[in-house]
UniProtKB/TrEMBL annotation:
InterPro entries in the record: DoxX (IPR032808), FAD/NAD-bd_sf (IPR036188), FAD/NAD-binding_dom (IPR023753), NDH-2 (IPR045024)
Name the UniProt record assigns to this protein: NADH:ubiquinone reductase (non-electrogenic)
PANTHER family in alphabetical order: EXTERNAL NADH-UBIQUINONE OXIDOREDUCTASE 1, MITOCHONDRIAL-RELATED, NADH DEHYDROGENASE
Organism: Lyngbya aestuarii BL J
GO molecular function: NADH dehydrogenase (quinone) (non-electrogenic) activity
Protein location: Membrane
Pfam families found in the cross-reference section: DoxX (PF07681), Pyr_redox_2 (PF07992)
Length: 564
């Protein structure tokens, strides 16, 4: 339908991906550009930073998201500037021309010109921010365990979070849970010394939520041990601490900057109308004034509906991506674009385990119900079925165990290379024995026992088994028996040791399927029904292992380093 129209979309976030899919589905040629090869699920970044999730659980390859959209091409490149007159964008990989352009480049931390904030404050808007923050937190905790000076120890264990919006609140709750997990049992005196301080410039937390929910949030955080300071503005950040406007100095090695974000336009905005937070002011149709073929959507756009500007949350970005795609389709068909209409989906924030807040019109939910709704929403929107399962598994484990097996991250991703110049983890956190971590080992041992036992009995009863195979009329009985023994030994040993476990499980499945069909075919012989179902159960268990891997206490994860 597109003729030769080419739509270039910069930014593979919530809005860019949505627009790409709709346009490609309609047969339009789309080039989606992002600096990363993956889409980041930003709302779960704080869970990476606080050790609840692994980085790979919150990212998903863009090429895989677009795999069913042949009209859409993904290009990994950094966009430096755009030339709206010549309809060209400049990337580090070269120039690309477009018929329609969508700027969906999201946001970046806003340091509000506070001296030292951009140098020493730790932002949380990208995956690399989350990974760096996690490494920093673990380093502080580990160094504190070895620190002899009480002042230094206190400074290492004081964590200041600037900004009492949803990210600040989520980070404060998550950080308390991390500290409880790492320190309460093994170093109770250090847990007592540690402090999470949440600084809020306003007189309440979560100002975009109703007051009742703000109060609940504050009470819950205080119960978790967070120290709240309202009407506190930061004047300066340094490596040794935070100075407030009233002159107070809080000694800390960690200032987490969640005090807001601003537009990240990826283009020179000098000749564009901009508003608060550097956002590009767009027309009601989301087009940039004077450039009918250029749209700005999501966090980068200043969209005013009535008297109020949109805040910059994911549902807005999703809906703007959708509206933009439909407007471009209208333009291609020679029709005029339509004004964007927003359907408010409400707000949700999580405070900690079993505590969240949700507000939608008059509906106000708090506590476990708010928490469950928050989890449900994020589960629904997280890209990738496997990621979803992994994340839910992590949430369930965290809730049952109430502790985290936090490990440093050794990453092959180039963007993290500077963090690990020698490709070594910077620390390991010893947590003592946790009984739960032996459960997968016990499970793997039980599962492998039947295969090892069967292989050993066949070795000792080689001639008899060989005869039995021959009696069934199967060809090459010796070869088949040898293969049978090798498959069971290799798979069984792989399971017990947890070495190349996924492959081991697949080897056993490959052995079980023909064996079950030939020797335990219940259709041919109803007496084989139980044996058939037993083998089916084994295949089921092996499928679980091949999907989830060996788990802890295994050679696959034995290095103690998470690879992403
Ligand atoms: C920590 C945090 C937590 C949040 N939690 C929630 C939440 O719980 N619920 C909610 O509704 N909202 C939440 N938000 C807001 C929400 O994430 C954003 O509103 C949403 O991501 C905006 O989507 P977007 O499409 O505009 O941009 P993004 O999703 O940010 O995507 C922008 C993309 O552009 C790419 N890009 C940027 N510059 C360039 C360039 N120069 N060249 C190439 N590519 C580029 C980036 O790599 C990125 O992939 C949160 C935000 C943050 C920072």
């Amino acid at each position: 339908m597109s003729g030769n129209s080419q739509v270039v979309i910069v930014g593979a976030g919530f809005s860019g991906i949505t627009a790409s899919k709709i346009l490609a589905q309609a047969g339009v040629n789309v080039i989606l550009i992002d600096r990363n090869s993956y889409n980041t699920f930003i709302p779960l970044l704080y869970q990476v930073a606080t050790g609840l999730l692994q980085p790979q659980q919150v990212i998903y390859p863009v090429s895989r998201i677009l795999k069913n959209y042949p009209q859409a091409r993904f290009l990994q490149a950094e966009v430096n500037d755009t030339d709206f007159e010549r309809q060209i964008i400049h990337t580090h990989a070269g120039e690309i021309d477009y018929n329609y352009l969508v700027l969906a480049t999201g946001s970046q931390p806003q340091f509000a010109e506070v001296p030292g904030a951009s140098e020493y404050g730790k932002p949380l808007v990208s995956l690399s921010d989350a990974v760096k923050l996690r490494q920093h937190l673990l380093t502080c905790i580990e160094q504190a365990q070895q620190e002899l000076s009480p002042e230094q120890c206190k400074m290492l264990l004081t964590f200041v979070i600037v900004g009492g919006g949803p990210t600040g609140v989520e980070m404060a709750g998550g950080l308390c849970e991390l500290l409880n997990s790492l320190l309460t049992k093994n170093y109770p005196q250090l847990r007592q010394l540690s402090e999470v301080i949440l600084l809020q410039s306003r007189d309440r937390l979560l100002v975009s939520f109703p007051e009742k929910l703000s109060r609940y949030t504050a009470q819950h955080l205080q119960k978790m041990g967070v120290k709240l300071q309202f009407s506190s503005r930061v004047q300066r950040v340094s490596p040794e601490g935070v100075q407030l406007e009233d002159g107070t100095i809080i000694p800390t090695a960690t200032t987490i900057w969640t005090a807001g974000v601003e537009a990240n336009p990826a283009t020179d905005t000098e000749n564009l109308p901009t508003a608060r937070k550097g956002k590009i002011v767009v027309q009601p149709t989301l087009q940039i004034p004077n450039y009918d073929h250029v749209y700005a959507v999501g966090d980068v756009a200043y969209v005013k509906l009535g008297d109020e500007a949109l805040a910059g949350v994911a549902p807005e970005a999703l809906q703007q991506g959708e509206a933009t795609a439909h407007n471009i389709l209208r333009q291609i068909r020679g029709k005029s674009p339509q004004p964007f209409e927003y359907i408010d989906k409400g707000r949700a924030a999580i405070i900690g385990r079993n505590a969240g807040v949700v507000s939608k019109d008059k509906l106000q939910l708090q506590g476990i119900l708010g928490w469950l709704i928050w989890l449900g929403i994020h589960f629904y929107y997280l890209p990738g079925g496997r990621n979803r399962l992994n994340v839910v598994y992590s949430w369930i484990c965290d809730n049952i165990q109430q502790s985290r097996f936090v490990k440093p991250i050794l990453s092959p991703y180039p963007e993290f290379k500077s963090l690990y110049p020698h490709n070594k983890p910077i620390l390991t956190v010893s947590q003592g024995a946790k009984p739960m971590k032996y459960i997968p080992l016990v499970g793997r041992s039980f599962l492998s026992s039947i295969f090892l036992y069967s292989a050993i009995t066949k070795i000792f009863g080689f001639a008899g088994t060989q005869q039995m195979i021959a009696d069934r009329g199967l060809p090459f009985p010796t070869l088949m028996l040898l293969g049978n023994i090798i498959f069971q030994l290799v798979g069984g040993i792989s399971l017990i040791l947890g070495y190349k476990t996924r492959i081991g499980a697949l080897v056993l499945i490959a052995f079980l399927i023909p064996t079950t069909l030939v020797f335990h075919n219940f259709l041919a012989d109803p007496a084989e029904t139980t044996a058939f179902l037993k083998n089916l159960a084994l295949i089921g268990a092996l499928l679980m292992v091949s999907y989830f891997g060996a788990g802890p206490v295994s050679l696959d994860t034995g290095s103690g380093v998470d690879k992403i």
